[in-house]
Specification:
The protein is α+β, with helices and mostly antiparallel strands. The protein has a single domain, classed as Tetrahydropterin Synthase, Chain A, CATH 3.30.479. The chain is built from 2 helices and 5 strands. The protein has a 5-stranded mixed sheet with strand order 3-1-2-4-5. The longest helix has 15 residues. The two termini are 15 Å apart.
């Protein structure tokens, strides 16, 4: 099994609905997202996926969040914009965009700070 990972960073604000504490107030983070894909077969030139292609796909998804208030954006108008839900959303959206016949999303980790993160791992097919 091979795994390939890329990271991308962005800044955004949010407020956690229903949270009792400071995080219910509007605040922001410098988020970091790491996506790991996995697969068993390399392509003819020896790559699982091209780093640049995977990073571009991730960038395309998170650019709409950069310097924005997540609560005002879909799907976070209804879904609480927690790190867990952000990882889940990115994981499911990336899964729709990748070359599924060779690779699958192994995990998506979202850091809100240098020391706090949440990871989503899709169920095995």
């Amino acid at each position: 099994m091979f795994e390939v990972s890329v990271e991308y960073s962005f800044a955004a604000g949010h407020a956690l609905r229903g949270y009792k504490g400071k995080c219910e107030n509007v605040h922001g983070h410098n988020y970091r997202v790491k996506v790991t894909v996995a697969g068993e077969k390399l392509n003819p030139i020896g790559l699982l996926v091209d780093f640049a292609d995977l990073r571009a796909t991730l960038k395309e998804l998170v650019e709409s969040f950069d310097h924005r208030f997540l609560n005002d954006l879909e799907p976070f108008k209804q879904l609480n914009p927690s790190a867990e839900n952000l990882a889940y959303y990115l994981g499911t959206e990336l899964d729709r965009k990748i070359e599924r016949q060779r690779v699958r999303i192994h995990s998506v980790t979202v850091w809100e700070t240098d020391t706090t993160s949440a990871t989503y791992r899709p169920p095995n097919p």
